[in-house]
Every structure is written in C-alpha cells, then in structure tokens.
Amino acid sequence: MSSNSPRRAALVALAAVAALWLGSLAGCSDMTLFRAESDYFPLMASSRWTYDVAGNTAIDSVAGDSSVDDRACVVVLRDYAPEYWTKQATEVRQLTRLTANRDGQDYVLEERYGLVYQLPFVQGATWSESFRDTVVLMGTDTVFLKDSLSGHVAAIEDVATPAGTFVQCYRVETHREVEAAELSFTADYAEWLAPGVGLVKRVTGTDSTVLTGYEPGH
Amino acid sequence: MLSLLIASLLVTGGFEAGGGVGVVFPASGLESNHSDAALFGVNLGYKTGPSRFMLDYGYAGLHAKQASPYRLDINELSVGYGHEFIVGRPATTSDWGFEASAAAGVGLFGRTLGSVGETGKSPSGHLGVGFFQRQNHSRLSLGLDNIVFIESQSAGSARTVALTDLIELKGGVTYVF
C-alpha cells in the first residue's frame, strides 16, 4: 500500500496536468452551445420592449395568444398596433395584410403568414420566400402582386444599447420587395437579435431603432 | 525523472482499450430544440489498484426536434480518474463493483444548417457513476455521466457564463491487456 501511494499520487498529478493542458486548448470559449440553447425570438406573454426610434419612444409588448385566419398566433402590440406572429422550431412568420383602396373601399390583395426568420439561426444561413397572385378589383382593375423576402444571418456580434450590452447577437439582413400597383416598395434592413431578448437594434438606411428597456414576460 | 516515473508506471500497471455506445440527453435549455442522440466513444485506460486513469473521446450528433437540416455535433476529448469499489470477487480473474469518476476535457462543436455552419470549443467537466464487471481480459461497464460545458465571454465589465449540461447513459467494453 505504501509503495502504491506515491505512484498513485504521480498518476493523479499527470492526469491533472493533462486536464489543464486540455483546458488550455479550449482557451476562451466560443459560446456555441450558449447560442444553440438560446431563444432569439421570445414571445412570452407580458414581455415588453421599449425602443428609441429616431428620438421617439416606441413600445412593443406581447398581448397574448389568439387565432387569425384559422391559425394560432401570438399578438404583439407594436406601438399599440396589433401584429400577429407564429413561431415554430424552424421558422417565425408574421401575418402580412396588404390592402388597396378603390373608390373609398379597401380590397385585400394579400393576407397570409409570411416567412420572416428561419430557425435556428446559424451564421451564413439564408432563406427566401416569394408570393405571387393576381387580384381583380371591381371587376376590371387587375393587380399583379409579388411579395418576396430574403434573409441572411450575416454575423455574430455584441451590441451596445442604452438597455445594456448584449453578447452573441445574430445580425440578420433582410431584403423585402413588394410589387403591387401603388403599394410597391423595397426595404433593406439589418436587425440584431439577442439571446433571450429578441430584437435589440434595427437599422434601415440611415434610421435606427435601439432597445432602451426590456421586461421579460412569463 | 519524469520518463523514469512513466516507465515504472508502465511496467507496474495494466492498460485497457475499448469503446462504448450510449444515449446523450441534452439538458439546461438545450433540450427545448435538440433531441436525444446516440453517443459513440473510444477510450484508453491505465489501471493500478482501485485507480483508473482514462483518456476518452466521444461523439454525439444532436438533431432538431422538428424536421430540419440542422445538426449540433459534439466531439469531446477528456482525461479522467476513476475509483473502483470492488463489491464481489468470485474468482481470481474476475471481479465486479461500482466506479465513481471525474474528468476534465475540451469539447469541439459544430452547428450546421444545410451547407453552412459555425464551430466552437469550450472546456468541460465530468462526474460519473457506474457499474463494472471484469472477467479475464474483458471489462464491461454501464454508467451515467453528467458533462458540463463551461462557456464564458466578457463584454465590457460584465462576464457572461453559460453552463450546458449533457447527461450520458453509456455502456462500454474494454480489453484489459
């Protein structure tokens, strides 16, 4: 027993040195598992985000669950205007409703849950969706509709906002193009989504939106 | 001096080499969007008295819970120590009992979604308990391991530390030289 003890101690020391060597190989970790387990678009009831939008304050909040167009969704009040979102493990969609006005009456050109994000976020991932339709208004007015969106996970970055510094944010760049008579528009914007928080920053051209406060829901 | 010590250890102890399979259960939040996965591993060991010193490599590929081209690959290399508590010794060439083990290592990760992906690494720590049976040149084992991957990042004056748990149920066969 006594002859084994120094040998065992030496082996323990060797194992400890090897473990330290392995640990040093790891160095500063890359937070890969942290990103893998994090929710980048939490939609918990009563969550509340406050943003600075070009000097003005905007408040987003989760109002609760609902059902629109025969589909369960989450109602998000974006500056008190309702938006309808669905979220699954592989995607996030938002109800898109485009209406055209003819002679004082609104006609629906498009009403569907359009793809916004593909999940889970992985750097370099891209997604796209295109919707086309032809709508005849008032019997003679034909409107050709095209609504396309493409997204790209461009980077993993830390973002400093008035609400704090958020690490391991995904920067998502989105291009949306709508062709529908007088409603046509093109939009390019970059969004930073933080783990456990969601949108913390958005830049559209020269305009920016930054998070100033966040109260998680339950 | 070190080489002499290592040489003396080589002639007084016993080497083991083997492999194992099992199931890995993600925990600590990872389970919300990752499914359980099969685990494969190989190991080298050195035994002297009730002490076992192990060099382990393990791999598990975790998929998304919904149909998706997403996968999280976890490779881990660890160095560990196990202490055997022998309960029964029915013959001079056989025994059985329980083993408690601890290990430290490094995890290498890959997250892929179709053709794109991210890679990363982090230190890890293990605690395990298991049953073993040794007979002649073979050693069978069945045990539970709790692996914690420790990730950290500083941003300004704050530091974010994330601990990710994986629970492994694994069985193995080892050849005792």
Please provide a brief summary of the model.
Chain A has 218 residues and is mainly beta.
Attribute tags:
heterodimer; A: 218 residues; mainly beta; YmcC-like fold; twelve-stranded antiparallel sheet; 2 helices; 12 strands; B: 177 residues; Porin; 1 helix
Major pleated sheet of chain B = 8 strands, antiparallel, barrel
Interface with most residues? A-B, 43 and 58 residues
What is the average per-residue confidence, as pLDDT of chain B, rounded to a whole number?
90
Main sheet: strand order of chain A: 6-5-4-3-2-1-12-11-10-9-8-7
Strand content of chain A: over 45%
- As residue ranges, the low-confidence spans of chain A are none
- How far apart are the termini of chain A? 59 Å
Specify the number of helices of chain A: 2
The oligomerization state is: heterodimer
Protein described:
- The complex is a heterodimer of chains A (218) and B (177).
- Chain A is mainly beta and 218 residues long.
- Chain A has a single domain (32-215), classed as Beta Barrel (YmcC-like fold), CATH 2.40.360.
- Chain A has helices at 4-26, 32-37, and strands at 48-53, 56-68, 71-78, 81-87, 91-102, 105-118, 126-137, 141-161, 164-179, 185-194, 198-204, 207-215.
- Chain A is elongated, with a radius of gyration of 24 Å.
- The model of chain A has no long low-confidence stretch (mean pLDDT 89).
- Chain B has 177 residues and is mostly beta strands.
- Chain B has an eight-stranded antiparallel beta barrel.
